[in-house]
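Recall the central idea of this unit: under ordinary conditions, the amino acid sequence of a chain determines the structure it adopts. In this exercise we apply that idea directly, starting from the sequence alone.
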Amino acid sequence: MKKFLVALLIAPVMAWAQEGVEVTKKVKCFHSGELLEALVKQYNEHPLWMGKEGENQVALTINPQTNAWTLVQLNGKVACVLAMGEGFSLPKPSKKGTV
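Accordingly, the structure predicted from this sequence is:
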């Protein structure tokens, strides 16, 4: 009976977590060339990873000396900083078949 009550209490929380939550976040956007040039010249950040999201590209730039990083979304001529910070670690590759 105790397990049933716990499950009954947790069910609404789990349902909410599966739906997700929409948030609004202000981001700074610049001309793509200017932003990428500034990341390299002013902050010595270089792309570590690039991916595609529909028509957009996403880039993660890092500076290993300062541990600074920036996550940028690019769409044609506009680039927006999604997040930036200091402090990161690069995980060691795992053995095949493990996470």
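The chain is about 30% helix and 35% strand.
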